[in-house]
Amino acid sequence: MVVSRTQKNLNIVLCLIENLNANVADNLYGQSEAYMEEREDEDILRYFNKRIHHVVFPKDGVKNPTNTKEICSICLGKFKHEETIGKIGCEHEYHACCIRKWLLRKKNCPIWRASVSPFP
Ligand SMILES: [Zn+2]
Ligand SMILES: [Zn+2]
């Protein structure tokens, strides 16, 4: 089957429009959204210090990574081995993802409601 010249050109044009639309959509939504998220992250990261939680294993060699006394007061879940923990100015600690979400809504401590200041 021979594809006519017009048909071929039309296909090229359609293809170009498709690519153009994809680029415009990327610029309008994809990039700006990612940019906003990044800015938000940078700002919120100043409010807590991150650390990786390490559960101290018992000396008898029994591994029980969930055995920890520290609890996140936001989700009431225990700090698990190698989870990222965020400590705010008043020394209270939470899961980094929990405190991040919390601080995006209000800048206070989930435990005693005192306002949280960013680290210098
Ligand atoms: Zn949590
Ligand atoms: Zn606190």
From TrEMBL:
| Chemical reaction(s) catalysed | S-ubiquitinyl-[E2 ubiquitin-conjugating enzyme]-L-cysteine + [acceptor protein]-L-lysine = [E2 ubiquitin-conjugating enzyme]-L-cysteine + N(6)-ubiquitinyl-[acceptor protein]-L-lysine
Q: Which domain of life is it from?
A: Eukaryota
* EC number(s) from the headed UniProt entry: 2.3.2.27
> What region holds the RING-type domain?
72-113
- Which Gene Ontology molecular-function terms are recorded? ubiquitin protein ligase activity; zinc ion binding
- Gene3D superfamilies, alphabetized: Zinc/RING finger domain, C3HC4 (zinc finger)
Listed A to Z, the keywords are: Metal-binding, Transferase, Ubl conjugation pathway, Zinc, Zinc-finger
Q: Name one GO cellular component term.
A: nucleus
Record's SUPFAM superfamilies?
RING/U-box
- A single Pfam family it belongs to is zf-RING_2
Do you know which InterPro entries this protein is assigned to? MBR1/2-like (IPR045191), Znf_RING (IPR001841), Znf_RING/FYVE/PHD (IPR013083)
Tell me which PANTHER family the record gives: E3 UBIQUITIN-PROTEIN LIGASE RNF165, RING-TYPE E3 UBIQUITIN TRANSFERASE
The protein's name is RING-type E3 ubiquitin transferase
Q: Give the species this sequence originates from.
A: Solanum lycopersicum (Tomato)
